[in-house]
Fold:
Amino acid sequence: MYLERIETTGLAHFSYLITDGGVAAVIDPRRDVDIYLEIARREGVDIRHIFETHRNEDLISGAAALSKLTGARVYHGPNPAGNIAYADIVREPFQVSIGNLRLEVLETPGHTDDSISIAIYDEAYPDGAVGVFTGDALFVGDVGRTDFYQDREAEMAGKLWDSLQRLLTLGDQVIVYPAHGAGSVCGSGVAERAFSTLGHERRNNRRLSLASREAFVAAKAAEHHYQPPYFSIVERLNLEGAAPRNNSFSPPVLSLKDLRAHKPDHLIDIRSVTGFLGGHVEGAQALPVSMISAFAGWYIGETETIGLIADRAEDATIAIDHLGRIGFDQVIGAALNPLAMAASGKPLKTVPIVDVDTVAERTKTSDGWTLLDVRSIEEFEAGHVPGASHFYVGDVLAACDKPDLSGPATIMCGSGARATVAASALLRCGYTDIDVFIGSFKAWQAAGKPVEGA
Structure:
């Protein structure tokens, strides 16, 4: 038996290739599928089976593309939200064998109606399952969100509780292989650790430790999750079967003049936040590479064109991969090195930054000034600067005319990164008197300043 976990950064997505006896199965493949073909060639195995544990909202599945390239069959759980053109619908106890391994489907709805888990059995050791691919039902330290069906949140939470109890009957020895890790939008408390067992989760998972189904449903109802607009695009493409992507694609390198001549719908500066604050092209949206997966889908339309501002062509290539994994393929090209642009006489804009002492003084003396905290509502309610207003960064990106900023404003978050993203959105939408609290809430706490809401 050989099992490899493939992590997709930005999305905090885990997919898997498992093989024995020269035959392989892939679980929850991402859209750029070359990596699975590379592993199969390296291990000398034939990919014959592909499982999707559920409908994906946050990333485009590579199942259809990988099936076309390998001839493997795709299996998807019952009760999908439409006809899945490229997959066979399977129900419990559907199973496939790969060498001495048996992969058995368990129906585990709750995160979605079509959620399944896949238990791993080793026929050479028949005393129970050895592992389970849990999809978005069970994570390390958390469980899946249950808010994707309007007016059915309590019903879905109850179904998830039942599914989790079913998973636990596999035994404490079973290794958990979830579809996401820390940072995923599909869970709010996923642990940094990428490995666990059902026994460890039964004893330590904050949701599995709840005493009853009723308590679990109440806890899930109290959660708040954000749903970027691009989720609906991904759901549709995951029914149709999205086209594959070549993950070695490099963008054309253009001058800023030539890039602007193409009139892209969006100009995205993928450099660091400090690079953006220190000097950026007018009208560009700050969105560092590491934040593309989380926030690009809040304001980019499916067919809208994109121009990139980057320090290096290699960074732009990585950005294109992140964009393609969530459905945005229309990248025109990249203009490189804004500092060199400035040296050649092209003007750059800057964003002022302020520190703890400035913010503290303003909270006492500044009338008409707004301190806008763009963290999640859970972060804000857990503790914020006295007098701060809340408006989530994703909502700023989606509709930046909504914050009530009648005068000057300071934008803050946890450290300054999301604040820079939100500030650049406000600036490109016409706000002018904006600065960024660098260090933000972490700096405020470190300075021992008073906190509300903790």
Observations:
- DSSP finds 16 helices and 21 strands in the chain.
- The longest strand covers residues 13-20.
- The chain has a mean pLDDT of 94.
- Residues 101 and 126 are 10 Å apart (CA to CA).
